Recover the amino acids of this structure.
């Protein structure tokens, strides 16, 4: 038994060249987020109706919703980078929860106000199909890009990494949606948002084994 | 005694951190020394989850391989011991889960593994296998041939009784029995040769 272990150690040591250490997880998360921010800025300036967005930007509830969504995205991405390393505690997974609560609460409040103002129309299916399509269309390439960076750490427990990463890209997609979706959300829209974010997280978790494959 | 004999002494952490940093920079000697020294600690973690010594040994090897694969994730600015214990514990628990899953899926059938020097002693197992092969071959026959074979040969009906039971003519039954036996012979010969 001990001989087998000794042989293995000799083999591993003989095979060991210098390795490039990973940079700290916060640094890696910031670099990734800055890359996404740059691409997003270009996309928003090129395709979004920024005038319409600016006209709504003074709305306090929209500001709260946007801050909640953006912080959820940032916190979830930072958590995913931490969780990809062996020695970081699992409580990192809780980091995105406070901003997630703010995101859901502010969206819910927005729906409730719309319902009070418009009555049953507040339940109507607003721009849900487009929201669904856009969140998925943005999340999938972002998710693939994120996985490629996260798998450099070869996470030993890939599911929490994939779940927080999935939440992160879905939240970033939802932030971008605000620039292309110049309407208050209805309850149905909110439901579709939640389902879409859930689908992105599930899809990400289902793909978690690709994180191990590097 | 060498430090390798004592799992995780207080002063091991900083020294192992230096050895790992040197290993990351490509020092094979430091890497080999580090791996040798950490084996008792890995073994202690594995023994916490596994009793059988061969399983503990398997986990030790798995942890060493994992450390080799993820050694670039260790940050020399951080303590080494939590990193090492996290890797060892994770792989040890993974091995435990794998074992529980495998044991839950496994069906123990003692007779299927039995084989004896005396061919007569294996007759029960072999007979059961032969019966299964024959049943499969009969099931694969066309319906008319299968029916004819079952009625005339297995239930030992007369041709007239079989004709009344199946609706096939006496001539048809004879032809079908003949064809069924020929088909079975060809199929079983194929099984034996294959």
């Amino acid at each position: 038994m001990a001989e087998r272990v000794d042989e293995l150690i000799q083999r591993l040591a003989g095979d060991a060249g210098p390795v490039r250490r990973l940079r700290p997880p916060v640094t890696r998360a910031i670099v990734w987020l800055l890359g996404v921010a740059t691409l997003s800025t270009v996309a928003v300036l090129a395709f979004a109706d920024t005038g319409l967005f600016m006209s709504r930007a003074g709305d306090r509830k929209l500001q709260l919703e946007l801050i909640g969504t953006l912080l959820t995205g940032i916190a979830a991405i930072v958590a995913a980078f931490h969780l990809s390393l062996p020695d970081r505690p699992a409580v990192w997974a809780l980091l995105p929860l406070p901003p997630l609560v703010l995101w859901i609460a502010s969206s819910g409040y927005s729906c409730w106000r719309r319902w009070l103002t418009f009555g049953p129309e507040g339940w109507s299916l607003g721009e849900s199909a487009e929201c669904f399509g856009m969140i998925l269309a943005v999340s999938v390439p972002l998710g693939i890009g994120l996985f490629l960076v996260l798998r450099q750490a070869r996470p030993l427990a890939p599911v929490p990494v994939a779940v927080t990463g999935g939440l992160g890209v879905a939240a970033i997609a939802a932030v971008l949606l605000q620039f292309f979706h110049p309407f208050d959300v209805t309850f149905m829209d909110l439901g579709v948002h939640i389902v879409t974010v859930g689908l992105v997280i599930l899809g990400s978790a289902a793909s978690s084994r690709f994180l191990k494959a590097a | 005694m060498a430090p390798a004999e004592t799992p995780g002494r207080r002063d091991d952490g900083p020294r192992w951190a230096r050895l790992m940093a040197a290993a990351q920079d490509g020092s094979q000697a430091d890497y080999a020394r580090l791996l040798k020294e950490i084996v008792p600690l890995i073994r202690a973690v594995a023994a916490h989850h596994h009793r059988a010594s061969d399983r503990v040994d398997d986990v030790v090897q798995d942890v060493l391989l994992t450390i080799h694969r993820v050694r670039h994730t260790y940050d020399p600015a951080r303590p080494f011991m939590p990193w090492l214990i996290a890797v060892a514990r994770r792989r040890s628990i993974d091995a435990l889960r794998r074992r529980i899953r495998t044991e839950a899926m496994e069906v123990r059938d003692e007779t299927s593994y039995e084989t004896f020097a005396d061919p007569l002693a294996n007759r029960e197992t072999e007979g059961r296998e032969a019966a299964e092969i024959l049943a499969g071959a009969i099931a694969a026959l066309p319906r008319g041939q299968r029916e004819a074979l079952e009625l005339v040969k297995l239930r030992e009906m007369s041709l007239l009784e079989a004709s009344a039971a199946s609706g096939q003519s006496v001539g048809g039954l004879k032809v079908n029995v003949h064809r069924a036996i020929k088909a079975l012979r060809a199929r079983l010969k194929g099984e034996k040769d294959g």
Observations:
- Chain A has a mean pLDDT of 85.
- Residues 24-212 of chain A form one domain.
- The interface with chain B takes residues 1, 4-6, 8-10, 12-22, 24, 85-87, 153-154, 156-157 of chain A (CB under 8 Å).
- The two ends of chain A are 30 Å apart (CA to CA).
